[in-house]
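pasting for the record
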Amino acid sequence: MNTRHIALAALATGLLTAWSAAGIAQGPPTPDQLVAGLKQNLAESQKRLRQYEWIETTAISLKGEEKSRKQQRVYYGADGKLTKLPVGSAPAQAKAPAPSGGRGGKLKERIVENKKEDMQEYMQQAVALIHKYVPPDPALIQTAKDGGKLQVRPPQDGKVRAEFRDFVQKSDLMAIDVDAKALLLAGLNVATYLEKPEDTVTLDVRYSTLADGTAFVARTTFEAKAKNITVVVENSGHRPISK
């Protein structure tokens, strides 16, 4: 998910520059101005963080209990692709005592293994769905605007919010928040579902800035409520890549 998240981090500067150039600093952009800015700047959105490397920490929890945590060094390679390398090694975990009971023990092992496979498959489907939203597809942005599915809300608490309904599938909602005063992308939220509306999947993306003004994804919280799964990804320790 990070390549797509990074794409959104670059959106703010060009998008808001377009708004300011249009002379709308005193109010929110119109749908036409918003769509034009989004489509124009998505093409440039992957350049902002290519001069940095950072640490990505991913924690996966089930029913509120953390099940795994890993750290990776992240940077763009010479081929322009995002590269991730493990940081250190995972701490050794105590082995569970061998199950007793003969066939009963083997049956329990199979049940546990099947549950793990089901969870992994579910997560893959959920992440694939989220990739349809982050970054927003310019064609879907235009479709939402033309279909009357885009609403630009007046500034509130210093932020302008653009809401896209039925963006990828019926009854979903994607919202982009922009800090109207500092001209920085503040966050992105998605509320959608897998197969059935009760299979709720949400994504909350929070942004921060580096000393040079570069925006980056600071924290991403992914929730699959139907499975009680939460994934939190944090990016920190940014530093320029040595030339």
